[in-house]
Protein 1
Amino acid sequence: MATAARKAPAKSKSEGKSGLSAPKPAEFTKDEELAAYRHMLLIRRFEEKAGQLYGMGFIGGFCHLYIGQEAVVTGMKMALIDGDQMITAYRDHGHMLAMELSPRGVMAELTGRRGGLSRGKGGSMHMFSKEKHFYGGHGIVGAQVSLGTGLAFANRYRDNNNVSLTYFGDGAANQGQVYESFNMASLWKLPVIYIIENNRYAMGTSVSRSSAETNFSHRGASFKIPGIQVDGMDVRAVKSAGDQATEWCRGGNGPIILEMQTYRYRGHSMSDPAKYRSKEEVQKMRSEHDPIEQVKARLTEKKWATEDELKAIDKEVRDIVADAAEFAQNDAEPDPSELWTDIVL
Amino acid sequence: MPIEILMPALSPTMEEGNLSKWLKNEGDKVVAGDVIAEIETDKATMEVEAVDEGTLAKIVVPAGTEGVKVNAVIAVLAVEGEDTDKAGEAIGEEPAKAETAAPAPAAAKSEAAAPVAAAPKSEIAADPDVPAGTEMVSTTVREALRDAMAEEMRRDGDVFVMGEEVAEYQGAYKITQGLLQEFGPRRVVDTPITEHGFAGVGVGAAMAGLKPIVEFMTFNFAMQAIDQIINSAAKTLYMSGGQMGAPIVFRGPNGAAARVAAQHSQCYAAWYSHIPGLKVVMPYTAADAKGLLKAAIRDPNPVIFLENEILYGQSFDVPKLDDFVLPIGKARIHKHGKDVTIVSFGIGMTYAVKAETELRGMGIDAEIIDLRTIRPLDFDTIIASVKKTNRLVVVEEGFPQSSVGDHIASQVSQRAFDFLDAPVITIAGKDVPMPYAANLEKLALPNVGEVIEAVKAVTYR
């Protein structure tokens, strides 16, 4: 399985201090397995459709697909309570779907139409929903880490028991403001979970070529922030790490780092031919560690779902995505007057 | 319905490519995510993945075909239950269907049809009336700023101040004096020396609905944080389609102080005024400092509030009112006159005011406009004055290229050209980094003599 092939997380000093280590993958109930399957499949199918629409010219600019990493947002979402916030960078479609933003709204934003979540003015990298506590969607690598720390600051200021889920990649983990934020978050005991989605490549540069310390769970050591390495391809492992981290934050212990060891199947963006890694590497991840196939295998093995039942979920998901794509292709462009709205209040 | 598989684009600029290889054959079953073909352009080779599940009924464009147009049908997929032969025939007869399907709405057409509409104009209220008999209290700019923050923090529990040395040290320039004692460390937050980080934390807190006042020890250090100010604070409202903005004030001393040399001496008024989504305020008097800082804290947008170290200790009359709030975006006529208009703001006003006294001795009656707000800029007040005096001089301390004065000169020449009796003269700091030596520093800044010479030039004296 996914974890077996990887190096077991070394016990770091910070882990020693906090007594934290990677928890065992959660035992999912049938309902949880089915929900995880459905949510991950929605992201997978949505992203495949987005890739297709990009290829057809409906989606412009940059388009970063989340295919392969679905277990990370899906497992973390299962650990949240109402009011917990999420913020991430530009590979954000999966996060939005996990936070239950409307697939139509997301897809129509990708095509730049008036029914898009940002009324066509944000695009793939910039979508938000105050109602669903999703704070973007940010195009500047690392900027969301300070912002997510600010969300946690607001939680602490209001003493509301909520936690900020601040996602960033292995690439962003080398930005300076990340460490400025770590320092303040630890100093002020802010309830923030720093989720480092380590998909092994910062665009085309592998972690070993960009990072002096490739164990990202150790990146908080100078700030007394504990960290855990998590098998980010196993939604159950993500969920149990999420439970542990949210409990840690809600307990007033300050921030925590979860390094999600994951993998993106597609290029960095649509226009990336991914020459920096071998086809065999990608194929191995897909065939041996796919997060959706793992759930599917368990569901079948435990006889929690028949082939027909799984097909029915597939069809339901496919219909949602088809409807979103249909809407996104046919919705009107923003009215020209929208050029001048939402600049200042 | 059989599904057409189209030639994908690798980027929005790609028009055609080569279909180098098929990895599936006719009759093969495919599922979503399967790599079915490889395409290449002069820049890259990419795999084509199936998006749907079915049987590859017909390959329309054979491997090795060059110059395949984007969106041309390259294969046909029969979905479950369909006859693959029929599915292939249904579409497969027109292999040359190469014209691009033009999926995006015709942008060129709409461009031609609809010229870009002008920005809508919003009305800004005039200053509130100060009732006759209101007591005027001589107050330093420093005290006025502190009073504004204290009043707003009493009024709204979501307002807090953060920055370096704002709490226990009582402010590097003593602007936050006494706030920690009154409001406690939860709302008066000392930060580490980490501008980029705490600016972002402030913006994040603002996006979550708090109303932070972020103090920069000086605006020179805000360059470490300028990405968060511009990319996060200023643009989020627009990028979110109006769902989420950042009600935040970034404040601190701006511009040249005294003898602190190049890295600590520059005016950011023009820089920030460039950015849609920001408001930029730069007061001169203590009354404006107080009334406008209160307005900035209440404003739902990010506001850059540019103060000046040299002005902090200067005293002005401030009306003693319970809630003295001034409108952002409205210039103030500092002194009425008829012969020439002098526009300035912030510390630039000190040159204008001194020059005006001397000009009066020469028989020149100058009108002085204090902009107070740099963005949105109150052109109505400037144009009305120019229509009366027919002459304009702008004074500021910032660098000359792309200065606030340049922008005003450009707008006045477009909106009131026929009313000008002389070219607009802009006075700015010299186009050099600020030197340290006392004599050179003096030369680098504008001076009263330059203002007088400019006024004499535009009035042909």
Protein 2
Amino acid sequence: MKPKAHSPKRSLVMNASTSRLRRLGAFLGQGFLFSVTSLSTLTVFFIFYFIAKDAFPFFKLEGFREFFTSTHWYPSGHPAEFGAMAIFFGTGLVTLGAVAVSVPLGISAAVCLSDVLPFNTRQIVKPVIEILAAIPSVAYGFFALVVFAPLLQNHGGIVLSTGAWLILTPILSLLVIVLGDLLADRFPEALRRKARWICTLTLGAAALTGMMMLGNHLSAIQIASGTNALNVSIILGIMALPTIVSVSEDALQATGRELREGSYALGATRAETIMKTVIPASLSGILAAVILGVMRAIGETMVVWMASGNASRIPEPWYNMLEPVRTLTATIAGDMGEADHVTGSARFHVLFAMAFCLLTFSFVMNLVSESIVRRSRKKLGK
Amino acid sequence: MRLETRRLLDRAFSSLGLIAIGVMALALVVILTPIIVRGSGAFIFRSTIEHRKVMFDQWDRGNAGRLETAKAEVAAARQPVYDMLAAFNTELDAMPRADRKPYKQSLRDLEKALAGLLGPVPGERTPVLIRQQYGATRWDRTQIKLDDVLTTEEWDYSDPTALGKLVRTPRVEQFRGTKLEPLFPYVEQNIKAMMQPRWTCYWQFLFDTSKDSHIFGGIGPEVLGTIYLTLGAMFFAIPMGVIAAIYLCEYAREGRVISFLRICISTLAGVPSIVFGLFGLAFFLNTIHISDSKSVLAGALTLSLLVLPTVIRASEEAILAVPRAYKEAAMSLGAGRWRTVMTVILPAALPGILTGVVISMGRAAGETAPIIFTAAVSVGRPLLPLEALSQPTPALSWNIYNLCTEHEAVDEIRHVQYGMVFTLVAVVLLLNVFAIIMRARISKKLRG
């Protein structure tokens, strides 16, 4: 077909009817775009509605009290018991563990990325974070179950003490050097050099003995089951890292050059600039990052299902990370297979009730983090 | 504080950050290394004669003549083992009844261990299960099975205060002084002749169906299922996501409605993936009955909702990154808004959009929780495209879970599990590396 040439007769000035037609077309087109957009965004209400619709029958059948206060979880027993407190507790414990792993690590990495590393190195490090974020959760779960859990179970003490050494050695040695230096400052000028040596060495020796004792204590521990809260917390922490790093790095970057340059101009070192100026200015963004990391850890299914041990009871004592736990997501995933042929029973609806709790929690968390980010943006004038 | 102390603090601070990054990189290496190393073992490994037999019998692969000669060699090497067993049986028959008894159970155990290593005894009736028709197909499994033949393992619970202890004794102790005693050194020394290990590249692992619940064969149906699910999810998510992004960037005026829509999108991004799965079950399957049972279609729709926020955000970013001058130039040439979007902005933003799409493809391929209730089954055959509308499928992500937790012979098929994880991770990482490279090129172009 020949390309249609523009007719020379077509006037450049539109008459009223074409103009109206065009406006109508534009209006319709815009309406179409708007409807598609709202359809895709309003899905979230669909999700709320359908989860709630299947969750409320449970509360109608069984009430709220048992669900939130009892730890007896026997959905298939006679009579069935639906005490989910231990499951809520397990979710909380695992999330707390993940936060303990990922927040310190993530924030220091974000600071390093945004303020310490030169541009070229940053370009190398960023893909590492992206790859960590991209690895599917089931692969993390597989690693936790097939590689990490047997390691914990068979060589638990060694793994724990090696981990403690790996984490504490750099931190303690930095602490010893800095403290030694600070202590040496108290001495008169003439003695200072010697004093510094002595202080550093004594502190170092003390730290080393402490570490030895801790290491011995840890390596005596025997772990009964490799699929436990500790395993899951570490893996979830690694999974939440990319979120925390990239969001808090954005927040740190968003504070801008002027603030940093002002601080440097007043004679502050880089550490002082970051600790006293940059981090306070971007605190809300970092908080949002932590919230997003928490949401990632709470919502994760496969890792906890595979490697948490799925025992619905509160560990003894409650902070014992070496006991198996069970989480909301794992319960939903694991019990639905048995429950979906009894649609309509409390056993089916209780899983929706759990999903509803998860959904509400993540919704509230999301609103909080959104409002934090928005407020901080306003404060920074962007 | 002295200047030097401050400098020291500064250094310490920087090194803490560097350590954090080091730990992160270390975690990545620690997680990926076993997956890559052992995962490639599903493709490249030392196969035994049994593997070649399986390939020939079940898939018609390999040279019949060469296999026959190899079989004859192996049979000759294995014959003394069966001869010794036969001799022992006659010796047993000659014994008085009381002496015979203790050997009975030991002999049965030994025969079972030997069948695990070498396959069924030649001349006997072929077993029904395929897994019992062949011996160890891989050299690494051969070592383990050989160990089963040579030693017995027992748990010792005599000390009630400690965990049980594993006691390993050579199996030959049970047969001291009988005609079976020379069997054990014979098997140990001639294992290579009996199994003929050889390096093999089993690339068909990716495409073969599995036989006897993944003990033999490959992961073809799972790979195909993952492809269907991913492409299906993108089929729904791309148009919706790109249109939403165009509307949000180019048409919408900032206001109440738009900020409300944005909150919806970020909420959608924060919904836990298992909740998507439940929603898919409650809505697509139980409410609008999109198919009678779980189906690829329902799974793809669920996954598309999951990746929608990612696609919208990535497309928005790509559209916003198009220089204003492009748009203004198009407008000043008299193009309407629609025409500007279609002819100028979208082509310029396309690489960016594609980057986002590729990343969300990786996400869709790897997600498990949304498809548990909507699309995934443990065992299935490869589906035709049209069947995907109404039938469930195995998928890599789900089968990884299934094989390493619910399979009846978890330890036997470690290589299949690792092979699946390796394939999934490789696919996702390749997609991501592609996206990273593309993004680097775009940013270079935009910087000029």
Protein 3
Amino acid sequence: MTSPASPSVTRNVPDRLQSSFTRGVRSWEMLLLVVLVLVFSANSFASPYFLNVWNLSDATFNFTEKAMIAFAMAMLIIAGEIDLSVASIIALASTAMGLAMTAGADTPMIVAAGIATGVACGAVNGVFVAGFGLPSIVVTIGTMSLFRGISFIILGDQAYTNYPKSLAFFGQGYVYWVFSFELLLFVLAAIAFYILLHRTSFGRSVYAIGNNATAAQFAGLRVVRIRFILFLLTGLMSGIAAVCLTSRLGSTRPSIATGMELEIVTMVVLGGVNILGGSGRILGVVLAALIMGCVTFGFGLLNVPGIVMSIFLGLLLISVIAIPRLLAHKFKRA
Amino acid sequence: MSILKKILTSAAVATALMATTAAAENVKIAIVVKALGIGFFEAANKGAEEAAKELGDVEIIYTGPTDTTAEGQIEVLNALIAQGVDAIAISANDPDAVAPTLQKAMERGITVISWDSGVAKEGRQMHLNPSSSALIGNTIIKLAADNMPDGGDVAILSATSTSTNQNIWIEEAKKVLPNYPGINLVATVYGDDLADKSYREAQGLIATYPNLKAIIAPTTVGILAASQAVTDAGLIGKVNVTGLGLPSEMAGAVESGATVSFAIWNPIDLGYAATMLAYNIKKGATTEAGASIPMGRMGAATLDENGEAAMSDPFTYDKSNIAEFKSIF
């Protein structure tokens, strides 16, 4: 313990900005990048099958769908909200695609049905949270059961399976060489959300609301509208993910994407987004997605049981969050 | 220095040679289960290892997701495809969702079969059912008849009157009834797979038919309730309860004698047979309709027009083996 009487101990108020270089080296993203390189190299040494472009290409499917939603979820969490119903939105959107298919719709209409359902579900969440001012965690736990429940009522123990061949492109198709359509979507979504969050006034408002919604309101930001839009965006991305996942599985069952919401939230938090809102960056989420994909695939290649993988990811999450804080603590005291 | 170098080099060469010969010889068969940590599948893995030992040049990779999700199984399958395993034998969490991934596996030259819980036809080369309706129908009558040397009355306690599986099995059982002279089927009642209703129906059978020698329950709920009813009525040794049950639930009834023997599939045999089939198909056995593929000590599997085959009669459990199996499933 330092002496409380010491005059040198004051509140840690930054009096000047760090140079962009120092900021870059010390940033969360740099830490994640180091972890990613470590995980990647360890995998390359551990398994002779890891460094193979086709295998790596297959492995990207482990995270692309989750990451697309994670970008929108990151913005939502930065704004101080959360959406736990995303996996259930996938189930309902996928069921809607099946209904459209049964009604004789062609591929573009099936895709539209999936995305539109996603947006509609997002709107439902948005109305309850932004409109009625209810806590998002309560509302989305409710809609989590609601959306999947509707899907169960429609399908029961049945499944939609006879999707048109052309739908398979979204989840199984390749744009160029080893680059799948899903990977392209992942990259486009990353760029779009990067611009939206870091290069627009909308993005700045999201941070402002997350830090202090009341202050943001008094500063003239349309808090309700922005929150509503964020839920719409999450619904939209869930709808797009539903199209990809349905296409990849070639079928719909009400149990589709069970438990995916927790993996998505894990991805966002590992990406350095403050779970209490107010800070976080898209680049971190991209790196977290790559790390999680690498870990899952690398461990899979070594036939490590899934539960060990979960333990490893849990430890990674805790250590990546704890280490910088412990270090910062230490440096401050030194 | 030079000696050390020589030793090191030869050691390296030897290791490399050993590694390559091992890799070239061993057939890698992946047993993919619904989720890890389920007794039934751990037992199947034992059977797979037994088959591997018998075949000699087989390496078993026993794997599966943490939860029983199709998405988790697909991640596992992708990793197996990447490792270039020779064969995949899967008990699927979803018959349709894993099919595209398994098709990809087959395109890359991997043998794919399903067992226990099947995969849609286009996603596998064959499916191994633990048994068939005809074999089950015959077994439940045979188990009752074996303990009735003088013949007598038997009754069936089923699940609901609309249970598809049970109705087919009872239908098959009635077909083979003429093969068991002296066995007289007096009634078929329905306990709706509810413990209390099944118990009351069993009591009713005992009261209505004083000469009843056996109750046949082709449902795990019914057999348990009926053996309890017989025990409570003090009729152990007079009325034998048999049918399909789970060893973990039936251990008490077998030990008390209310049930002399009952049947259900044996997961060890299932894992063994699946491994044998995967191996033989990898080595060139054809999977056309009507083909007969050997599966070691379990005989041979004959494929029907859907590429499905039945392994064997359900396995009989009695006092001699119940202790071993009750901890498995």
